[in-house]
Structure formats: C-alpha cells, structure tokens
Amino acid sequence: MRRRMALMVPAILASLPREAAAVERKRLERGSGVIEVLAEGRGPLLVLLPSLGRGQEDFDDLAPRLSGAGLRVLRPEPRGIGGSSPLPAGATLHDMAADVAAAIEAEGGGPAIVAGHAAGNWVARVLAHDRPELVRAVALLAAVTGTDIDPEIRRSITASFTLTLSDEERLSHLRRAYFAPGNDASVWLPGWHPEVSMAQRAAAAATTDKAWLRAAERHPLLYVAAAEDAIAAPPSLEELRASLGPRVTRVVVERAGHALVPERPAAVAEALVAFARGLA
C-alpha cells in the first residue's frame, strides 16, 4: 500500500494577516517588448506565476495574504496579458523564464521564492535551471509533473477557454477539469486569454531540452497538491522525490481541485508562508 505522507493544512488556519498594501504597477522594458509587473509588501521576495492562459488577477486574493504576512510579492504579468507585450513567435519556456528573471533583477536580484501555479510550474523550474542564483526556493502549486492526463480532461481544459462555447457548457468543463465538487467554478468563466494559451503551449512544445525538469532539486522545493485534482492527482512524497529530488516537501489542500488558488486561497497562503519562514 502506498504510504501517504503529507503536511495537511488545518482547517482552523483560515486566514493570515491581511493589512492592505499598496499595489505598485511597473513597466519593465525588455528588448522584445514590455513586461507589466505588480508588486506589493516588504520582506523576502516571492514571485507568483499563473497558469496556462491566465493572468495575475488569479492571485488578487492570495497576494495580500502573502504581503500581509511579511513577504514582498512580485507578479509579472504573462506576455499578452495586461500591459505585457505578446510572446514573440518562436519563443520557448526559456524566454518566458527570462522575463521573470528580468523582473527579479529589477527588484535587486533576489534571490526569490518562485511559485508557479499549474502550467506556471514549467516557467518556475526553467528559471531555476537557467538562473539558479536568482532563485532561493521553488513552490509548485497543483503542478503537473507527468504527461498522463485523461483525454476527456484534456478536452475540458481546452473547452474551458474556448470562448465561443456557451457559459453553461464552459462551466461544465471547468467543473470537470479544475474545481472540486461544491466549489464555485463560475469564478473562472472570465480571465481566460485563448491566444496566450496557444502561444504558451507553442513555447512549451518548442522547449525540446529536458535538463530543466530536475533543475528545481538544487533548491528547497514545496509541492502544494490539491486533494481532488482531476488533472494532476496528488503524487506521493516518494514519487515527488523520485522526480524532483530529495529536498521536496508536500502539502495537501483538501476540498480543492486543479484551480486551487481561487478555491482555497487561505490554505495556499498558509503553506507558502510556512515554507518561506522555514527557509530563514
């Protein structure tokens, strides 16, 4: 029988200090365009990277919880969203990671805890490979570490951001792929950027090297799993250590699916803050 090893997030830890912090909006000039960066709070640097085809608004609830707990939260907007220029043709995950590296350098060079949600984990891990000196630790939130996804779930992933479908049909796909039963999937009806999704998928496909897959093992690593994740079922600690190295810690968030962050922001914040404080 597989031994279940996890740090469970207690239900009583429902919230963290949430003192309002002013959100700074910055424009970072790059040779290939502009990157919009949101920043708030003071303290050790933590970078948030959103999922496929989604922007930093996904972290609007999470970010103030983190900054209120004493972290400097940096949110570079993905290419093609907000004030960020579109992703250039032929770009790879290395180019996407270079944008994040530039944002960290603009803050003084970190090093930063880099947290990637779902597909954002690819960029976090590539950054750890390409610029390890900028990375203090890596956090993967509901991250896919393998490639074995049910074809019907893959269909629902694409249908979720197919805006020509009715809201009712898209909502059924969001429930199937992203949200645990009973959670409000309608919060993800907006916020999708289909062209960005396709560009990011193309960048991932163009990234043919594989060395970055284990690069995060150079750093302390937190894997935050969603207990009811239909896309990335929670791997055991043994599986994570086999694929990501021996320095990984696992936290399981109950009553959450692959969306995770809008479903259980307090639990995600608690896990990230505890991880950050454990690095001191």
Automatic annotation (TrEMBL):
InterPro entries: AB_hydrolase_1 (IPR000073), AB_hydrolase_fold (IPR029058), AB_hydrolase_sf (IPR050266)
Stretches assigned to the AB hydrolase-1 domain: 46-271
Domain of life: Bacteria
Pfam families assigned to the protein according to its UniProt record, in alphabetical order: Abhydrolase_6
Keyword match Heme: no
Cellular component annotations (GO), alphabetically ordered: membrane
Keywords noted in UniProt: Hydrolase
Gene Ontology molecular functions: hydrolase activity
PANTHER family per UniProt: AB HYDROLASE SUPERFAMILY PROTEIN YCLE, MONOACYLGLYCEROL LIPASE
Protein name: Pimeloyl-ACP methyl ester carboxylesterase
Species, as recorded: Muricoccus pecuniae
